[in-house]
Amino acid sequence: MPKISKDATLQTVITTFEMTPGTCQDLMDALTEAYDDFISKQPGFIAAGLHVNDAQTRIANYSQWERREDFQAMLRTQEMRDRNRNINQLCRSFEPVMYEVAAAFD
């Protein structure tokens, strides 16, 4: 489970996906499979979560990695490149952005 802390020494990545309600479940299935079968087993992976808006037009993915380089190395693998080509066909756009936690509230 992701833990959000300003003092954490990890890399946070938030990826947003835009899609139609007709492809939302297909995209969720592809992302869930990617995490179950591949991403979660990569070096440096800590945790992730997938969130769907009520209109099923956006998915937000929050992931945490030990280091920025771990996330980048996962993206560069042939398997993830192949998966991202499939994911790209299921949505209008997606963009992973690396963040630093500026504040956290309990």
Can you describe what's shown?
This protein has helices at 21-37, 68-76, 78-90; strands at 11-18, 45-52, 58-65, 93-99. The chain contains 3 helices and 4 strands. β2 (45-52) and β3 form a beta hairpin. It is of the alpha+beta class and 106 residues long. Strands 2-3-1-4 form a 4-stranded antiparallel sheet. Helices cover 37% and strands 29% of the residues. The relative contact order is 0.29. The protein has a single domain (11-99), classed as Alpha-Beta Plaits, CATH 3.30.70.100. The protein is globular. Keywords: Monooxygenase, Oxidoreductase. It comes from Shimia gijangensis. This is Antibiotic biosynthesis monooxygenase. GO terms for molecular function: monooxygenase activity.
